[in-house]
Specification:
Elements (H helix, E strand, L loop, with lengths): L6 E2 L16 E8 L3 H12 L4 E5 L3 E2 L7 E3 H9 L3 H7 L1 E3 L1 E6 L2 E7 L11 E3 L2 H14 L3 E5 L2 E7 L4 E7 L2 E12 L6 H5 L5 E15 L8 E5 L8 E7 L3 E8 L5 H4 L2 H12 L5 E14 L4 E2 L2 E3 L5 E2 L7 H20 L7 H27 L4 H13 L4 H6 L37 E4 L4 E3 H7 L5 E5 L12 E5 L5 E2 L4 H5 L7 E4 L5 E5 L4 H11 L6
Parallel strand pairs: 2-3, 2-13, 3-10, 7-15, 13-20, 24-25
Antiparallel strand pairs: 1-4, 5-9, 6-9, 7-8, 11-12, 12-13, 14-17, 14-18, 15-16, 16-17, 18-21, 19-20, 22-23, 22-26, 24-27, 27-28
Helix pairs in contact: 1-4, 1-8, 2-3, 8-9
Amino acid sequence: MSSGAVVQFGYSRHPDQECPSAAPAHHAVVVVGAGPVGLSLAIDLAQRGQPVVLLDDADRIGEGSRAICFSKRSLEYWDRLGVGARMVDKGVVWNIGRIYHGADQLYQFDLLPEDGHKMPAFINLQQYYAEAYLVDRVAELPGISLRWRNKVTALEQRNDQVVLMVETPEGPYRLAAAYVIACDGARSNLRQMVGADFDGQVFEDQFLIADVKMTAEFPTERWFWFDPPFHAGRSALLHRQPDDIWRIDLQLSPDADPAVERRPENVRPRIARMLGHDDFDFEWISLYKFQCRRMKRFVHGRVVFAGDAAHQVSPFGARGANSGLEDAENLSWKLVRVLDGSSPASLLQSYDIERSFAADENIRESTRSTDFMAPSSPAEARLRQAALALGRDTAFAKRMINGGRLSVPSVYPSPLSTPDGDAWSGGVVPGASLVDAPLATRDGAATYLSDAFAAAGKRFTLLQFANGAAIEPPADVAVIRIGESEPLADRAGLLAKRYDAAPGAAYLLRPDGYVAARFKHPTRAAIDAALARAVGEVWS
């Protein structure tokens, strides 16, 4: 059985290892963990001009497909990091999901029913491909020192830095950093080193993952079954991946023996019953339990936690990896501002506030999914039975059926956001992320708001809907002006509709694409005040 597209990286000695222990080499940022979150964060920092050291205790990628569902928001982020097109080109694009009860379809849903977005709602892509593309991007950037087989074994926090002990095949060395970002996964060693732990719930029900290689005519959609005829009394999920690989998740009983259940000779009959044939090969088999847990705080002095090191949710809903990428995007611009002195160190507390809110939201949704899939009480079981019985014919019951609510970006109740001072009937509220829309350049070429935002250079950006007059923006704030006589035009009218914007309106966008403030009738004074709040000068 293949373990996927394994890529081996060689260990290389670094000049930092020559430094005496009494005076270890000092770097502004050390990121620990070269998974999708750590790699993306390192790339983001480097593109913002911040050199970074990236350590990983392994020297290979490709141990099974692991995370496979990446959201529109993640793809937009990766696009700004220079890898979005490659991810989409390789990935399997999908927007449609179907929910079944037994052999009958209850309903279907479309995650992106409207046109005018550059990126699809989701792609399915094996994590080893995502990591390989990110590693390739790292190699293109001179500001990243990626060190394989460098394992952090000890951590000492001081007032002005963190000192790490790093073990390598040639022995240990010490490394100092102004900030350390822990992206070292669910079993994070750094989390233990700062004396923190997870709070939350581990559910008893188990799920079997089988990645199988086969040729099939199934459409490129997400299919979820409750009580299917091939797996009575349990749930099942089917996703297509690239290379004719299909992800199958099968719910098992809480008392199932993992060692027995993951044996290929025991998995094969289950999959054959589902598919109706035995013409497939195994790529990867694993088991997991639902876990909905997080750290109480994501910021511990000069050590900041992101991704699975900070929080865990069940895989249904694709909230794990996507949430971790949102952590990276949220943290990178704030960390750079703190390091260059343009914002106070307390700005990092907004990372804890915003991403803790998102983690709680993801855990809440993931827990609800788990409770519906695996009821833990007679009352929950009766509720599920009633919802499934009514789901084909009633809208309210459809809303109750939960096969995993798919990942969407959070709307932050953030201290960095300026509350609306004008009356809006829609649009993108402060604390919400940028919503894409099609645009046209002056020569008629098609483009998108997401492209214009990326071209603005990872800065605060003022999105102006032109009415003839232009407000001079604060220093180092980019401007995107939309209008028929401007470089970009909203020919389809979708941008104005999605932002509830009449001529003269403006949005102040953060470097991560979140709305800091919006104005029906902007003034320079109002923009200055919103910017001061968004960079942490007001609430700190």
